[in-house]
Amino acid sequence: MEQLTITLRPGSVPVHFFRGGAGEPVLYLHHLAGLQGWEPAIDELATRFEVFAPYHPGWGPSQGLEDLDSGLDLVLHYVDFLDALGLDRVHVVGHSIGAWIAAELAAIRPDRVNRLALFTPIGIWDDAIRGEDPFAQNPLRATEVLFADPARRENLILRDGTVDPLENYVQEMKDLKAAAKFLWPIPDTGVIKRLPRIKAPTILVGASGDRVVPPAYIPIWKANIPGSEAKTVLDAGHLVNLEQPSRFATIAGSWFLRPN
Amino acid sequence: MKFHWFNLMPYPYLPDDFRQNHRSVWVDVDSRLYDPVKGHRIYHDYLDLLEFAAELGFDGIGVNEHHANAYGLMPSPALMAATLARRTRDVSIVLLGMSIALYNPPTRVAEEMAMLDVISGGRLIAGFPVGTSMDTNYAFGANPATLRERYQENHDLIIRAWTDPDVFPWNGKFNKLRYVNIWPRPIQKPHPPIWIPGGGSIETWDFCAERGYNYSYLSFSGFKRAAQLMNGFHDRVAELGLPFNPYQASFAQQIIVAESEAEAEESYFPHAKYFFERCLHIYPGFADAPGYRTEATILAGLKAQVGGVSSGGAVGKSFRQCVDEGFLIAGTPDQVTEQMEHLITSLRVGHVFCLLHIGDMPREKCEKSTRLFAEKVMPRLRHLWQGYEDRWSPKPLPAQLMAEPRPIRQPVQA
User: Fold this and answer.
1) Which of A110, A190, A209, B333 has its CA 20 to 30 A from that of B215?
2) pTM summary value
3) Residue B145 is nearest to which of A170, A172, A181, comparing CB atoms?
């Protein structure tokens, strides 16, 4: 594994990303609370694929949120990212807000996406399935709601007290601010009308304990993406990758290995 | 030294178990707690108090904007200012203010404030708050990631709308207007004095210092905790090589004046408790949306304006503790005069917003306290800051140009 940066065009701010493993290329698009480094789920996926895991602009060390105003800007950012890396066609695993970006990418540039795995996708709204507001949580425990078991936040995000609480708080607020830019105040991104354009074979993965995007959203996504399949991971909340890393890697990996 | 009478207009009938059985006074507060028939009387009591303060010689009377809450019943402060403009003569109308990032297009603010300046004969102070996170992000759905950028653009548009006599196009990021041309235009030139109510945002210091606006620090934590922020502002002014002027700074303080200290505690303090325990009972998840505060402000360790970690500061404290810690200035006229002088000189402010109505205080008690302040405290503090020019108060029309509204003659039919 290596942590790298790449500049998409002269003068633009660098994109920070991780790269590791060998095999067919996989683009990993992280959830709304960012990346916790080279996570166990990514590490496991990298036993069979070459994984590229960038920080979205505005999350972690990646700058440039102010240059992006819409989902289209995010899609173009990732088209440029793939171009810069010389990657013509990739499998994409998107999680939470990353699943929304992945779906937009597959809908707008079907030629660049091989197979698609969307975990706890956010971006469709139904008044009858509200879930909890990820942006209206006690700021000192803002990410608890993203776990089926709130106590797991302590181990998985705070990393057993090695992180300074103020620093962690600032980082969480910064990551959530970036997510809010695209999802505030209601995460209705309009992606639902573009989903039928997706050509990539797609699997949708919900989490039984997702309090932010209740699993009842999964059938709506499935109904709008032609030929897609769906699965549910048990004992996991919105951040499936952290609560069930092995399930996450296995589901995505098996999906990408399945012949088209 | 200038004194302004300010009322938050809280809803005074929140139940005793409000804190236990409701999670927030803001955003998702149960609307079934509001009784509009009682509300009718409350508005008139509150407006009467503002007019009463004007008669007693306060320099300004103030109103502000909040949404979806029982803390302050003025979602439209311009409506309040409009009725006050008609019913008062000399006093400044301190509109503190309209949350300029929430108006679309913000030329609406330029228009309404111009109307108020014209109706009042040039007595308007134009406040441009960002607004609390509860009001802007949650109640009005403004995106916290772009709120401050939008605020900045809307500010620039309003100032241009007031000062550019020609029709102009505005091609902003948040506002696109082919024809900007507001009617009416303000009486005060180039525009009414601008005051920026700030809580704990350090960017506000630079904004006020560089543009020569009044920095109005609003806090319910009292003057002893305010020194850090007030000094931060004065320091920025000095660092920019600008002259110190106390009238460029203002501070809001809750005040109780009574015949005796015992009366202040027994008769008045329960209303302050109502305010601290019910009106500031804000769910922390609504106090500080991600992005509402800048990273620089968070790292400076500053608290959000209202709510957040600081809102519970006075809860459960005794009268003595509240006075000692500065949450309240309270006591006899002599005691209040002494504490006020300490506040004014330690914070170096030329304007104080006197919050003499607190929580569920009934009108008669408030009138008594307000009168004591006006007659026995204010005159003894007027001499402070003599020699400094107050460039942040309105410049009204001369008396001979002021219109005389027709008095109300019709009795209410039984």
Assistant:
1) B333
2) 0.95
3) A181
